[in-house]
Structures are given as structure tokens and as C-alpha cells.
């Protein structure tokens, strides 16, 4: 009875349908936000050609990069809907983490290109034309990014996709960098032509901060980091299950936008195999229903006693 491992996955039709619907909603968000950001960036690109504003160029490049982040995420959502196989026994949810690496690379590329163009314009100054259009393009960039940010964050939180929420926060930051374009246009209008490339450099710095935050988020996912509050919540849920005398280790990990759990509980030492199994099943059942975004759990039941007895003695050399 010391190794009652009962992986009742709860992969019923309800769970499968919920997972597919989450991915479908994510795909819709990506398609709509891709269209909005591409239109925003194309409008800005036309004005860059008319004005020669390097600050607006930096913002436009960043908006194009932000729109393109929808592509790897869409691929990841599509892969994540595939069933697990004998080779990929946990499914394909990790594709979201790989998409995150691509997103970080795109952000880094936009930062590098924007910085290069700003420094180049400082070394070789050029007049900026159509300042009114430049200012209008900055406003367009802000409005497009803010709308996309709200949409991505709202749906991302509803379906439990950290990648989608992070991408929404990224879009919100992009909106404020778009407003910075107004500073460049205003400075140039007041007779300070260096304002445009200087604002371009400021936008580059802002992109670098976004890059740092995005890289940190992806690093945490790749290292299986979770919010400690989720672990504490899982422990409380398990402790409240009838028949659970003690809660042992609790391990959680994100696989795509779903959580998996591996937990240990202690039951009374004289419980029958059937009784201990029933406690483990109830513990898993409550975890799946009460812990947000949890799709599957494996519960290991140990006898709680007798005192001084170690039921894992054969495994000590392997731990």
C-alpha cells in the first residue's frame, strides 16, 4: 500500500472540450490582434516613408514585430490541441514555451534595428517632414496597441495562457512607446531636430525593458516555475480532503496554458487498499475542480505510521 499511485487523469469529454475551446479562443484572439496590429504598422510605415522620422520607424518596426508574435503563438496553440502520443506522453503544450523563445528573438531584433537606425540618424541628421502626420501615427499606434492589449489580457486570463497575457502586456507597453513618437515630433517642431533620433533611442531602451521581462517569463516557464500561491492553495485543498492526515510534497508545472500536479498525501496506516485508493481519487478530484487551470493530477498515497517506520527505505539510495 506504500505506493498507491492513482493517476485518474479526468480527461473526460468535458475536459477535452474545455481544452479545445481554450485553444480556439486563443486562436481567435491572435487572428484579430494580428490584423489590427498589421493595419496599425502599415499605416505607420506609409507615414515613415513620407516623413523620414526615425522615432516613428522604431515604433513601426516594434509594431510589426509585435504583430508577428501571433504567428509562433498560433502554431503553438495548434500543436497544443494534438493528442498525446507514446513519444510525447504529456502532449504538445510545451510548444507555447518554444513560441515564447521566438517571440523574445523577434523583440530583440526589433530593438537592435530600431537602435541602429536611431544612432545612424544622430550621426547623419536629416530633416523630418509631415510632423502632423508623424504625431497622428503615434496616436494610431497607441490606440491599436491598447485595444490589442486589453483583448489579449482579458482572454489570456480567462483561458489561463500566461503567454497570451504576457503578449498583451507587451502590446500595452508598445502603446506607450507609440506616444513617445509625439515627443519627437514636438521637439522637431520646436526647432530641435535631434529630438527625433533621441526619442528613437528612448523607444529602443523601452523595447529592451520589454525584452527583459519577456525573457524572464519564458525562463520561468522553461524552468517549471509556478506562483508559490498556487502551491499553497493546492496544499489547502488536499488538507481538507476527508481521510488525508498529512500533505507531503506538492509539485506543479505549466504545460502550455494548463497545469499538471504531482502530490503526496498520507492516509491512516490501517486503511485498506480500496479505502486508500478512494482517498487518493477524491484528493485528485478536488484538486482538478478547485485549482484553476489544473487539467490532470497524480496522487501518491502513503501510510501515516506506525511511528518510526519509513515506507520508502528501498528508495533512499535513489533520492
Topology:
Layout: E1 4-6, H1 13-51, H2 54-68, H3 70-80, H4 95-123, H5 131-159, H6 162-189, H7 195-222, H8 228-239, E2 246-255, E3 258-267, H9 273-290, E4 294-303
Subcellular location: Membrane
Transmembrane segments: 29-54, 60-77, 98-116, 128-148
Keywords: Membrane, Transmembrane, Transmembrane helix, Transport
Q: How would you portray this structure in words?
A:
- With 319 residues, the chain is of the alpha+beta class.
- It folds into two domains: 13-222, Alpha-lytic protease prodomain-like; 226-318, Cation efflux protein, cytoplasmic domain (Alpha-Beta Plaits, 2-Layer Sandwich).
- The protein is built from nine helices and four strands.
- It has helices spanning 13-51, 54-68, 70-80, 95-123, 131-159, 162-189, 195-222, 228-239, 273-290, and strands spanning 4-6, 246-255, 258-267, 294-303.
- Strands 1-4-3-2 form a four-stranded mixed beta sheet, with helices on one face.
- Strand 2 (246-255) and strand 3 form a beta hairpin.
- Helix 1 (13-51) packs antiparallel against helix 5 (131-159) and helix 4 (95-123) runs antiparallel to helix 7.
- The two termini are 20 Å apart.
- The model is unreliable at 1-17 (pLDDT under 50).
- The chain crosses the membrane at residues 29-54, 60-77, 98-116, 128-148.
- It is a multi-pass membrane protein.
- Keywords: Membrane, Transmembrane, Transmembrane helix, Transport.
